[in-house]
Amino acid sequence: MLPYKSLIQIDRKSPVTLYIQVCNVFIALITKGMLQPSDLLPSSRVLATLIGINRNTVKLAYEELISQGWAESLGRKGVFVISKLPALSKTKPSETSKPKSDNSGEAFRWTNKFKNATPSENLQKTTLAIDDGFPDVRLAPIDQLMREYRSLSRKFYGRNFLKYGSAKGSEHLRISIGNYLSTSRGLGVAAENMVITKGSQMGIYLAAQLLLDLSDTVAVGVSNYGFADDTFRHAGANLLRIPVDGKGMDVDYLEEALRHKKIKAVYIVPHHHFPTTVTMSMERRLKLLNLAKEYHFAIIEDDYDFDFHYENKPYLPLASIDHHQSVIYIGSISKTFAPALRIGFMTGPPAFVEAAASLRQLIDKQGDTPLEEAFAVLFNNGEMDRHFRKSLKIYKQRRNIFCQILKSDFNEVIEFKTPEGGLAVWANFDKKIDLLKMSENASRKGLYIANGSFYKNESFVTNALRMGFASLEENKMVEALGILKKVVR
Amino acid sequence: MLPYKSLIQIDRKSPVTLYIQVCNVFIALITKGMLQPSDLLPSSRVLATLIGINRNTVKLAYEELISQGWAESLGRKGVFVISKLPALSKTKPSETSKPKSDNSGEAFRWTNKFKNATPSENLQKTTLAIDDGFPDVRLAPIDQLMREYRSLSRKFYGRNFLKYGSAKGSEHLRISIGNYLSTSRGLGVAAENMVITKGSQMGIYLAAQLLLDLSDTVAVGVSNYGFADDTFRHAGANLLRIPVDGKGMDVDYLEEALRHKKIKAVYIVPHHHFPTTVTMSMERRLKLLNLAKEYHFAIIEDDYDFDFHYENKPYLPLASIDHHQSVIYIGSISKTFAPALRIGFMTGPPAFVEAAASLRQLIDKQGDTPLEEAFAVLFNNGEMDRHFRKSLKIYKQRRNIFCQILKSDFNEVIEFKTPEGGLAVWANFDKKIDLLKMSENASRKGLYIANGSFYKNESFVTNALRMGFASLEENKMVEALGILKKVVR
C-alpha cells in the first residue's frame, strides 16, 4: 500500500471541501502513475483512520472518483482504479526538470521571435547598487499615494473604480497628465488622445506592434536601449542602425538612408539618448520632423527622461512642435516615482491612439483603475509637482557629488561628461579594465554594478557603463564608489 | 498683436520655471503658425505688464527662445521670430480632428492586425447592469488589501518592492498561488514555473505570441470568447472552429481535423465554456490530452472560472492531470476579486514559462510588486479563502434567485439551463426579440444589458446573451429584471 498518510495532506482551512481534496490526491496519484489501472484502493475504514478524517468523507471521495470515471466499485471486493484508463504518459512533475535553452524534447513547439536581452536586474534584494539610472524610491510620496488609494476604495463611488473601465485608462489621470504636459512642455493633448500605459515600455510595445509588420524597417541608434531593439525585433522588424554623436542621432545619415530604403518608424530618446545620455539638438529635432513629413514615417519619441534636466533648459519635445501628426510621444511616471508602480502614457494622432487602446485590450484589458485614480489625486493636489521639484534638486546634488568623486578618484580609468540630465553617467572605462570581472569582483564585496553587456549590440562595441547616481544617498555613494575603487585598482 | 494675455497662462505652482513656461508658449505659437517668420515679439515691458510677471522673466524667456534658435534679436528693433524658420506644416492641433476608421490622410501608416472586437464595456459609470458575468466588487476585502498595501510601503523592506523586480512577478505571490492551486485543484507548481500576469487576458496574449506564427492554425470553439479570437488573429494565426455541445468542445471533430491539418494550439475554457457556460466532460478532457501528445499541439486551458462551481464537484483542470507537458494553464484573481485590479497567473512547461517571462519584459517589464505582495499577504492570512468561500455562497444564492425569476417571468421568451458554475446564465431569447432594440430600450430605462453582438462571430449566429447574476444584490436583481420584463413584453 502507498504511504497514504504522508501523500494525503488535508487542509482544513481550505475552501475546498475535504472529500474533494482527498479525491484530487487520488487523481494525481493515478495520473502520475503511482496508482496503476486495477489497483485496489484502501478501504474507507483504513484510510479514514490513517489520515484522521471521517469515514463518510472517504466514501464521498470514492463516489466522486467513480462518478468522474477514475475508479470503479466491484461490490464487496472494494474500489479499484478503473481498468481501462486511457494511456496517460507518466513522467515526473515538471518542478524537477530544468528549463532548456531551446524547446526540443518538449511536447509542443513555440518560438521566441526576439533575441533575449539580458533579463532585467532584480534590484529588490540588493542593498548597495550602482544601477542603470533608476530613481530613489525613498523619495516618492508613496504614503500619500497609498492613503488616496485606500480612501478611494472606501468611498461609494470609489468602489466603482474596481469594475471594468476604459482601455485608455482613468479619465481623471489622463486629464491630470494632460495638464502637466501642457505646463511642463507645451504639449497640448486632450484626454481622449492619450492612453495610460504600464510604464514607457508598454508604449514602445504598442507602437511597435501597430507600426511594424514582418520585415519592415525601423531606424534606431547604433547605440540604443536594448529592450526597444528587442521589442521591434519581436514585432518582426529589421533594425537599421543610425550613428549617434554628441548632438544625438545623425539625421543627415538618416536622410541618406531614406533615399534608398523605406523606413516605417524612427525610434529616438532625444532627451537623453540611451545609453550615452546625449541631448538631441534642436536643429536635428526640426530636421527629423521635416524628414518624417517628407518620407511618411512615424517618430517614436521616448521621452521618459524629460523630467530630469538639471540645466533648466529642457528642449521642447518633438511632439510639442509636431502637434500630433508624425510623432508618437511616450512618457513614464514609473521612472519619476517608483519603477515597480507601472504607470506611463502615450499620445499620438487620434486614430493611432484609438488603435493602441484596442490592442491594449488584448494585452491586459486595462490598467489598475484605483492606482490610476490615486495618481490623479496626487497630480491635482500638487503632491506630484512637489515630488518632481524635490527629487530634481536632490538628484542634481547627487549628480554633482558623484561626478566630483569620479573625477578625483577614477580620473585614470573612467572618461565621462557630466550629463545635462537623466539619472546616470555614461562612463567609458579604460581598455585594461575587464567589466565582466569588475562586476563579479564588486558583487563579491557587496556592490551590484552591471557588467556592460546590456549596453552592447551587434554594431556597438564599447567598454562603457551607465552608472546611476540618483538612487544613492551621499554616504551610500561614497561606500559604493569606495568598493569600486578597490576593485578597479 | 496677438491676445497674449489669454494665450499665455502662467501656472505659478508648476515645477517648470516661469520663463520656460513663457518660452514654451511662444514656441507653440510659432510651430502652430500663429506667429510667422520675422514677426515682431512684444517688448519685454509690454508683455510683462500684460501677463503680470517680472520684466526680467520675459527677458530670460526671450534669451531662451534665441538660444534654441526660434527667435533672433535685431538690436534696438526688438526680438523677432527667426526669418529662416524651417518649414513646419501648420495644422490645427489634433484635439479638434476626429479619429477615422482607417488612417488614410495621416502622416504615416499603421496596421490593425486584428479585427476589433466590441470594445469592453466601461461599467464604472453604470448604476444598474446585467453584465457579462462579473464579480460583485463590493464583496472583495479591498480594505484589507489596501491596509496591507499601505503597511508594506511603510516598512523598510517594503520600500524595496518599489524597485525593479522579477518579470515573473512577486515570488511570495507565486508561492501563495502555488499553494492555493495545490489544495484547490491538485495542481503542483513551483514558484519558478509560474508567471504572474495582469489578469487571464495577458496569459492568453503571452501564449498566443509565443505559440503562433503567421498563418499557423489555432483551434477554438465555434462559439468562443471574442477577445481570445482577436488575440490569436493579432498574432497572425488562422482560427479553426470546432463545434461545442453540452459536453464542451467536440474532440472527435478535432481529431478528424488533426488528421488533415497541422494545429499548433487548442484554446479551451473547460470550466465553463465561454459564452455557453458548459462544463467539458472528463472523458473529453482525457481524450484531448492524449490527442495533444499524439499531434504535438499545446492546450491553452483558460480556467478563469474554476473558483465558481456550485455543485461542489469541479473537475480537475487538464493541467493537473498533465503535469506540465502539453498544457498552458491560465487563471485569474481579477475575476474573483475586482476586475480593475489586474492579477492573474500562467503555468506551463518550465522553458515555456521562461520564454513568457522574457516576452513579458518587452510588454511592460513586470507587474506592480507592492500590489502583488499585498495579495500574497491576503492568501497567507486566510483572507482570500474566506473571500472565496463567502462569495461562492452568495453567488450560488443569487444564481438560484435569478434563475427562479427567469423561469417564472421570462418563461416564454428565454430558454436556459441553470449553470453549474460561473457568474452568468446563457440565455437564448425567442427569435421575435431583437436584442439590439432590447438593449437600447433597456438603456433608456436605466438598465445596461448587452446587445449580443459580442457573443456572435463569423460562424456563430445566435440570439442569445450572457446574463450576469453575480454582481446584482437581490433587490437590484428584481429591479433589473423588472425593467427587462417591461422591455421584452
UniProtKB/TrEMBL annotation, chains A, B:
Name of this chain's protein: GntR family transcriptional regulator / MocR family aminotransferase
Residue ranges occupied by any HTH gntR-type domain in the UniProt entry: 16-84
Keyword rRNA-binding carried by entry: no
Molecular-function GO term, any one: DNA-binding transcription factor activity
Domain of life: Bacteria
SUPFAM superfamilies noted in UniProt: PLP-dependent transferases, Winged helix' DNA-binding domain
Keywords per UniProt: Aminotransferase, DNA-binding, Pyridoxal phosphate, Transcription, Transcription regulation, Transferase
Sequence similarity: In the C-terminal section; belongs to the class-I pyridoxal-phosphate-dependent aminotransferase family.
PROSITE patterns reported in the protein's UniProt record: HTH_GNTR
Pfam families: Aminotran_1_2, GntR
Keyword Transferase: yes
